Amino acid sequence: MNGAEALCGALLDGGIDVCFANPGTSEMHFVAALDRRPEMRCILGLAEGVVTAAADGYARMAGRPAAALLHLGPGLANGLANLHNARRARSPMVVVVGDHATWHVAADAPLTTDIEGLARPMSDHVTRLAPGESVAAGARRALEAARATPGIATLILPADVAWGPETAAAVAGPAPARRGFDAAAVAAVAVALADARRAGRRAGLLLAGDALRGAALADAARIAAATGARLLSEMFNARVERGAGRPAAPKVPYPVDVATGFLADLDLVVLVGARPPAGFFGYPGKPSFLARPDCMIVRLAEGTDDLPAALAALADAVDASATIPAGPDAPLPPDPADGRLDADAIAAVVARALPEGAVLVEEALTAGAPLYAATAGAAPHDLLQLTGGAIGIGIPLAAGAAVGAPGRKVVSMQADGSGMYTVQGLWTQAREGLDVVTVILSNRAYAILYGEMRGVGVAEIGRNARRMFDLDGPPLDWVALARGMGVPGIRCDDVAGFRRAFAAAVAEPGPFLIEAVL
Predict the structure, then answer these.
(1) Which helix (H) or strand (E) holds 156?
(2) Strands 240-242 vs 381-385: parallel, antiparallel or unpaired
(3) 185 sits in which H/E element
(4) Which domain holds residue 460?
(5) 46 lies in some domain
(6) Same domain for 297 and 350?
(7) CA 421, CA 414: separation in Å to the nearest integer?
(8) Which pLDDT score, from 0 to 100, does residue 444 have?
(9) What is the three-class DSSP state of 61?
(10) What strands, in cross-sheet order, belong to the sheet with 359-363?
(11) pLDDT by residue (tens digit) across 448-466?
(12) 304 near 149, Cβ under 8 Å?
């Protein structure tokens, strides 16, 4: 058995049976090993950002890691933006990066680079395998690290380690550490919530990660009912269970002024896997942190802790009722009148027609502003968001989500400018026959940058800036782009046409693309 075969076997033994890949010469022995193990599903991405985002989407929905195979340092570099998003989402992933044979590195061949240096900022664990070491043992350590954090474990596989023999005994490694929580923190938060209520001060539970799903979200709702606290969620979240009949945890808004107003009445914020609420950027004369300066911030649990267990313990500590409070369901938006398409009409149509159990992937950016509120009362669904702010995640994230949640319709709301970063993901959707409806919100501009210019105090935007923001010369033809990659599509510029197209798309297996021209 060579090292590549040992690696493949260790991944399969550890529960990884999907590998998103864009391999090159240094990875050919690993590709050959994968070829001999048909139980490993290998999915090609035509760009490395597609590979890393798809592995992220898979992990968010499947709840377990996939492998991502990349070619040397430059291949890793091409995938780093979406590894950043995945790390912010705390998505478990094992990233296998091929490297030159160890004795060839001294030749300083063109693709030679510092892979560790590239990997560390976007990885929670980095290991370089060496000749004479057990590849299987190194793979197990990486997998354990990816699950325990959870996060990104990067495994560097030199070519001679891949083709060389698995020389060391493949002994079983230690079991991954179980995620726990701090009982003292639970007790302290219970006291803080009780003190706030007695003093007539307002508290909020700021949720992130696993706290926004299933029993954990229900426990958070029970705690809020028992203590009078508001349920809140971070600005951008990896996965949220939303829709009719589910507890609502409104997200902190993106604009700084709106966000500070949203949090202004809170005297206490309890962090449940979340970070202290902060603005996405710094602006002249505006704060970095969004809660009032005198607001007390206490932490129930870190994002790496067992958030469901911590919330269950807190529910007991505050004597929360066993009954999950129903709360008022948000109404669906009215069916929009026929006429020219705008962002509000698109949001309303999607909210009204979203199938139960759908996975809604949102990278709609400026044109998607109405979508979050509109879908609050939609059929129960999961929402995946842009966690790290590095645009270009939506199309491949939706592909990975479809692989990780077979049988569920995936609806991807995608801004046109950021969609071009990883448009190749449409080809992967077509090749794998994935059930994804992609809605391109085509305002033909990096429209968010107009708002950012105003945010830093620029009143007039001239020709040079517009040349960097506008996408209309020539306009992108998304239907042609999609068809060129094997995905059928249609263009709509009025409400009636979009309503018909979206209803038909969600009723039939995908993939399918709708270009909604605003």
Answers:
(1) strand 152-158
(2) antiparallel
(3) helix 183-198
(4) 343-517
(5) yes
(6) no
(7) 11
(8) 72
(9) helix
(10) 240-242, 381-385, 359-363, 410-415, 436-442, 512-517, 489-492
(11) 777 788 777 888 888 888 8
(12) yes
